[in-house]
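Second attempt. The first submission of Methyltransferase had a stray character pasted in from the spreadsheet, which I only caught after the job came back as garbage. Lesson logged: always re-copy from the clean sequence file. Corrected sequence (255 aa) follows.
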Amino acid sequence: MLDSSPPPALTDDAVLGGRLKLLQPARGHRAGHDAILLAAAVPAAPGERAADLGAGIGTAGLAVAARVPGLSMVLVEIDPGLAALALENSRRNGLDERVSAVAADIGDIGRANGPPALPADRFDQVLCNPPFLDPGRHAASPDPDKRRAHLPERPRADWIAAALRLLTPGGTLTLIERADALAGVLADLDARWGAIEVVPVHPRPGAAAARVLVRARKGRRTPLALLPALVLADAAGRPSEAADAVLRAGAALPA
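This time the job returned cleanly.
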């Protein structure tokens, strides 16, 4: 049962050019570009079944569900209050008939004694934006909600293992990470994964990539592919046409 009492201080915001309306805590981790970029990279099709791991208030999963008609989505979040808020956001956007929320730890999902809504080998798509600041290299935020969102209690390999349990053979995991963590991501995607695709995300022309979007398919053997980069802004700081299509219009990245 989800906690029905929302956080005490909320703001009412919109992303995707106003297409997606979100209630979110006024303090702590907030919806941002990473969630929308992640959603754009998910190669989902109508009628598929998807899960968003570490969904928070549901930004990424709801953006995918809004883009793909007939897609069913489970928003998975360990914090019961945020899971309840994610469910409320699905209602506010008219997506509650095919979007649900579950308060669960990723270590429990896809297991025989885990949540019934998250059975093994049943999902076509899994997406996740795991906490990815290295506590050995970054100072912890004094805000407990931001600290929980950014400092991982579980290693990335645990998130990937949870996705592996949930996905059907050939199903796709999509995640977003820091660009300097790409080697670690590829190391965590062991021999049970293949058809790995990497999309570098650059803040502006000539700048090093800040993020990478990574897709991998369960049980495939196709070699890794480095796909064309997404550049978010031009040299003057104006949003690029491609970034505007993703961040404001909700367009998908090429699959």
